[in-house]
Amino acid sequence: DSGVTQTPKHLITATGQRVTLRCSPRSGDLSVYWYQQSLDQGLQFLIQYYNGEERAKGNILERFSAQQFPDLHSELNLSSLELGDSALYFCASSAGQGSTGELFFGEGSRLTVL
Amino acid sequence: AQSVTQPDIHITVSEGASLELRCNYSYGATPYLFWYVQSPGQGLQLLLKYFSGDTLVQGIKGFEAEFKRSQSSFNLRKPSVHWSDAAEYFCAVGGSDRTSSGSARQLTFGSGTQLTVLP
After folding, report:
1. How far apart are CA A71 and CA A79, in angstroms?
2. Chain B residues with CB inside 8 Å of A33's CB?
């Protein structure tokens, strides 16, 4: 158990819809990262927050947005969903801000867009 | 730009045999290197990491990796594989420098190597 909690574990929705994925980081960790894992793109970094502020942006689509709340949990909002958005979405947390330390991953939220 | 190449998509070994998973990286500064493992239905778990110092690093579950700067490689090894090692393995590179936009450097992951262990 990494200490990172993601909900929901599975989500099935239709094209054009909007979903919200939730992540609770490991106790004491200030950074939250979102990754997308798909068969054709592999593991892609989407966005990082540190103590409520956006710190880095990766290959995140404009239809996607995220935020980190004062209690440090984070939400990833995916809107106008397309078939290609079907993927496993991981949240990870770390104590620091960058890539110098260990990331602790949740078990992921599997999104299926029909 | 930083990148990681894992040339082997799928490797099959017999239980008890030795294992080596290849990883090559490209990074402009001093790299921080990681190996993560993903079991089915699970998130990624850190096996080991290299920041500096001794180029042979030991990790959990009996794994080790060797950093070879001249070859830009960070191969993962295990002398005797157990059936429970069947999983997908990801190499990743990061660093303490900043990007051109001033952001903290993020990890870049390889495409992964799927390990199958035969009884």
Report:
1. 24
2. 106
pLDDT tens by residue, A40-69? 888 999 999 999 999 888 889 999 999 999
Long-range CB contact pairs, B95-100, < 8 A, 24+: B95/A98, B95/A99, B95/A100, B95/B2, B95/B27, B95/B29, B95/B30, B95/B31, B95/B32, B96/A98, B96/A99, B96/A100, B96/B29, B96/B30, B96/B32, B97/B28, B97/B29, B99/A56
Q: Please state, in angstroms and as integers, the Cα–Cα distance from residue A102 to each residue in A33, A66, A88, B32, following that order.
A: 12, 22, 20, 11
| pLDDT band of B102, cuts 50, 70, 90 | low
pLDDT of amino acid A41: 84
- CB within 8 Å: B43 and A100: no
Determine which of B101, B107, B108, B114 to mutate to test the interface with A (most A C-beta atoms within 10 Å). B107
Provide mean pLDDT across the span B19-36.
92
Closest CA to A44 of B34, B83, B3, B20: B3
Q: Which residue has the higher pLDDT, A77 or A1?
A: A77
Measuring CA to CA, how many Å separate B14 from each of A102, B17, B38, B59?
Answer: 30, 6, 20, 21
User: 3-state DSSP call for residue B39?
Assistant: coil
- Residue carrying structure tokens 């239905």: B41
In contact, B51 and B70? CB cutoff 8 Å: no
Contacts of A42 in chain B (CB under 8 A): 109-112
